[in-house]
Structures are given as C-alpha cells and as structure tokens.
Amino acid sequence: MKILDNKKFTDFKNRLASQGINNLYLVSDFDSTLIRPYIDGKFIPSLMGLLRDRDLLPDAWRKRSSEMYNYYVNKVEKNPDLPFEERISLMDEWWRKVYDLLVQYGFKYEHIISIAHDLRLEYAKGAKEFIKWSSDHQVPLIIMSASGLGTDCIEEFIKIRGDFDENIKVISNTLKWDKHGNFTGAEAPFVHSMNKNGELIRKFGVFEKIKTKQLAVLFGDDIGDANMLDGIEADTLKVFMNLTEAEIGPKVKNLFDLAFDLEDSFIDLLELLNLVDGNKR
Asked: Which residues contact 147 (CB under 8 A, 6 or more apart)?
C-alpha cells in the first residue's frame, strides 16, 4: 500500500481515533475492487462480461451486446471531447438498449444465480474479512456499482458466500422480474460510470443511514470512482485499488489518498487505521 497524501492520511487517522467508528461509513465499487481483477494473470470480466462469456443466452445476443459495448465504451464513456451532459444522455441510451436486448433474448433470474456462482469470481485480498469486520461493528458499507446485472447479482454473490448483513446496502441497477423469473426491464435511474456520485445515495434512500456520520473511506479502481461521495459532506479517505507503480499518474495522485496494488489487503488498511490488531490475524 502506498500513501499518496501523508497529511490527509494522518489527519483522517487522528479524527477516527478521537471520534470512533460510530462516526464511520464505507463506500466501495464492486467489480475489480471487492472482486479480484486478475487470477493467475488472467483478467476476470465484470458481471456483465461474464454473462457475455457464458452460453446462457443465444449467440445473437452476445454479438449485439458486444457491438454495443465496444461502441459506447469507445465513443462515449472514454471520449472526453463530448460534453458531459451529452455523455450522460448517451450512457442512459446505452443502458436502455442493454435492457431491451436482455428482454428480447429471454434473460432470467436463474442466469443471475448462475453468474453469482461463477467460480472465477473471487473476493479481493482481505475483502471477505473486511466485510465481516464492517458487519461485526455495524459500520455501514455502501457498495455502489454500475453493473448491468445490478443489485440482484451483487447481493446474490455476497449472500451465497454467507457475508450479507443489514449494514450492507447495494446501489446499482434495479432489475424487474415477472412471477416466473423472466426479466421485464430495469428501473430508472440507471447507474453507470458517469453518474456514480452522492446523488445516488440520496435517490436510493441510503442517506438516512449515514447523514450523522462525518468520516468515510472510499474504495474504487477507476478515476471516476473518486466521485462516489460528491455532494455528501464527509471527511473522506480515498483508496485507489489494484494498480501497478506505473499507473500512479497525476490524476490518481490528485484524486486519491492511498493506493493498493494487487497484493495489498483490505485488512492492511484496517491495521494502519488501528481498527484491527495485525498480530491477531
């Protein structure tokens, strides 16, 4: 783990020591943050990427879904020349098309269960113990994800592994199902990489759980994840996940306070913050 802003880290640690964990909450991305991005050197796709990688839906769906992904990621999501509001509108357009296509090709809740069980999905180092620590101490853990498979798949993944508790709230896309488990569409607002911010915490009814707490730790693997608490007043320690030394560029240094590489553990941070005793591990 690399501390990018020593003063910010020291000040946060001192405030946490004086105010206690009752004043703390946690916000984390899911794919490539709570989940390992690589296993044995092989990249692990996102939840939606795993669906495209499996034989659960027809080849025609996979082809059209991949074409949309390549178009919108390259032409919209990663295109800084487009005005921000236009990018937001086009990302919403992409998500509507994604869900229309899933309805057309017979997506079912059983596919959600299958993806959540996929053995390629593994917790990042120390993430399971970190989640248990948050549950044991009832520290709110907000998982904010732009996953196309949404809240259902993320919650199923955590529940299957026996780690879901009342302190956990998932903010992601809300999928709708009929009584037979057939997918019928998704509810607005869509959650995508361009709108992951504090406004979603208010829209999804999570603000009441954290409004009296003034300290937050944020985890993300993308520059945009630094915005997950924008609009929420809190002293926030921001941790950039799963990088190499070469990836610590100016943007990361300007937006984040600490950086994890692939071998760092969530528990390492708890030790640095004096929230667990490393000698007892």
From this structure: 30, 31, 46, 47, 48, 153, 154, 172, 173, 191
Letter for the amino acid at 60?
A: A
pTM over 0.85, yes/no: yes
Dist. CA 51–CA 37, nearest whole Å: 16
Taking Cα atoms as reference points, which of 197, 35, 232 lies closest to residue 123? Answer: 35
Tokens coding 39:
């296993």
Q: CA 96 to CA 106: how far, in whole Å? A: 16
Gap between the Cα atoms of 98 and 28, Å rounded: 24
Phi-psi region of 209 (alpha: psi -120 to 50; beta: other; left: phi over 0): alpha
Give Cβ neighbours of residue 279 (< 8 Å, ≥ 6 apart): none
Residues 7-44: tens digit of each pLDDT: 999 999 999 999 999 999 999 999 999 999 888 888 88
Residue 104 CA to its chain's centroid (Å):
27
Mean pLDDT of 186-209: 94
The 10s digit of each residue's pLDDT in 90-106 is 999 999 999 999 999 99
